[in-house]
Amino acid sequence: MRVTLSAAVTADGFLDDNTPQRLLISTPGDWDAVLRLRAGHDAILAGAETLRRDNPALLLRDEAARARRRACGLPPDLSKVTLTASGRLAPSLRFFTEGEADRYVFATSELPELQSVATVISCGSSVTARRIVTELEKRGVERLLVEGGAQVLEMFLREGMADTVRLAVNPSLRLGEQGGARFAFQPPEDAPCLREEVDGMRVVTCTLRPDTTDEDLCLLRQAVAESRKCTPSPTSYCVGAVVVTRAGERFAGYTHETSPTHHAEQEAVAKALAAGACLRGASIYSSMEPCSVRASEPESCTELILRHGFSHVVFALYEPDRFVCCRGALTLRERGVDVRAYPGLAGEVRAVNAHLWP
Ligand SMILES: NC(=O)c1ccc[n+]([C@@H]2O[C@H](COP(=O)([O-])OP(=O)(O)OC[C@H]3O[C@@H](n4cnc5c(N)ncnc54)[C@H](OP(=O)(O)O)[C@@H]3O)[C@@H](O)[C@H]2O)c1
Q: What is the DSSP letter of 22?
């Protein structure tokens, strides 16, 4: 998934003032640009405090943009996402009542009072950006726009789960002591940033993680092709994997290639090690999410990937809860690995594994 953070701030860094009324910080031209940005995403996220204070509908109002999305086979509105620990969210909020898009509430408990108006995803003791990204990806979201407020923006930055940040500063608006929530974003020195003026706003768009989609998809297709060499079995998935080292060497493997208990990732890693390749900082492309639970071997593929210090893991299909409950992607993200899922290729992986689907 690609994650974009977007916010408008005053010249002194405030997202809002301290009055109950919603403060308009963007100029009309900048707001149009934000709506265009929204139209290029699958889901939009705002924190519970923003819903309580501003009661936004988070819809795409522009009929032309909605029509373009329909023409591309997308729903006209973005899925809506929020998060709460307190559960203080009234079902009458416009987030729940307006539009027909899917609505997701990430919470620390079940919240039965919201279950008729949203899908509540209960995360136990804490909600994290890594968990949100993982759960939304499983539901087909590929591009997430996070529109604030401050707590939520900071959570995505702190966890390293933001790819791009668009910050629009209104240079003629200062709040001083009337300021409310504040968002101070300092781009890392090495982050490429585009600076432009949009209808009187100073807009900076910084890339925190480069877009690797084209290369990822190319290598993921090789992994899927590799998976087709596997002999179908009723007790395992046919998976293919490709390891690419920082030096550019490639090693491919598929399930059970050399042993009836080997997974594809193990096969590819074993070939790399046999060739003397260094795996620290390497990338692995697998047609399916790396396993986190193994019945047949002591080490899961997730542990294998962590042990060798891979930094980039790419896959197409989240492992279904058929044999075990897999937490590979989330575990890798929690350990700081850059994980990318491409559900667009998941259909091909399902087709390779048609023997396991009724
Ligand atoms: N200018 C802009 O571009 C812009 C955009 C959006 C918002 N805003 C402004 O930002 C202000 C709100 O910002 P904010 O920082 O106070 O609040 P926020 O980020 O909108 O929401 C914070 C709330 O989200 C929930 N939350 C955050 N982290 C969580 C976690 N790890 N687990 C579970 N729940 C979590 C909590 O809800 P519970 O309290 O329910 O537990 C928390 O109180 C508003 O004034 C709004 O107008 C401005």
A: P
